[in-house]
Amino acid sequence: MVMTDQPDGVSRQRLSMQDRPQLEPEGPFDVVVRVAAAGVCRSDLHILMGELPVSVPHVLGHENSGWVHAVGSMVSAVQVGDPVLCYPFVSDGLSAPERRGVDSAAPGRRTPGIDCDGGYAEFLLVTERSLIRMPADADLAAMATLSDAGLAAYRACRKAATALEPGSLAVVLGVGGLGHLAVQILRSTTAARILAVDTRAEARDLAMSCGAHHACSPGELPAAAGSEAAAVIDFVGSDESASSALSCLGFGGSYFAVGVGGSLSTPIMPLVTNETRIEGVYVGTYPELVELTQLALRGDIRPMVVPYALGDADQALQDLAAGAFVGRAVLIP
Ligand code: ZN
Predict the structure, then answer these.
(1) How far is the CA of 154 from the centre of ligand 1 (A)?
(2) Ligand 1 centre distance from Cα of residue 73 (Å)
């Protein structure tokens, strides 16, 4: 799917398979990936609403997996036919942040689907540095969801884990594409008690099936958590979720912001007296994505995948906006 105009009045034009040009490697380290699956992310909705500017025409899709289709002359890390997972940041690896492993802060990075054409397509142009080779029998639709949704959830959980002693309380706000993975990651990497919070009963059921110890609605959170949470991971990012997160933290508790949209406003005094920690989480690192794939390949993480045909991208986006499914939607070309 190609966006051809900006909202308001987004007009989009679908290209048939025959119309879409087959990409060729442009540089020596380029790789053309034949897309297996592209995750449908709330960031795509922010792009469509004009809240995250892109140049148009533009192909969405920053959460991708596939098979190596063609390689540039200097590519050595992958071969044609290899199944691969696409780390969302594409860069040359030379900047200081990249040398520290934080490609998300690299000045020259680009994210296919945001800064250039992405994976709502049959083919995707990346570089070899951004690829992780997968086993031949890997479920590439499930793996795709790890590269953005899973990775942000994993980074948040790893940060939270430093504050989570066995038996302490971890709260997951929002059991969507990221939250249901966070519950599983917390369950497999910590000994915390996990309380999952969502407005939807079916999402709370999903959280329990993913390993949460308790699940409740936002209105029930104060009674369920008291003021003893060691960590709250907020995948909602609304004014209300941020406010309720801070009020259920215990002394030394940590608030991790992952979802976006609202504002955080709080008196400073309780932050000081409770030694509250507030931290943002932005996607994650390549090594963290490798670690996460290992959890998934051994079966500790099982993404709830909701498949749509590539031609049904509009429907998938509408369903995401409406909260019409639980788990993570992926587009299959
Ligand atoms: Zn995303």
Answers:
(1) 14
(2) 31
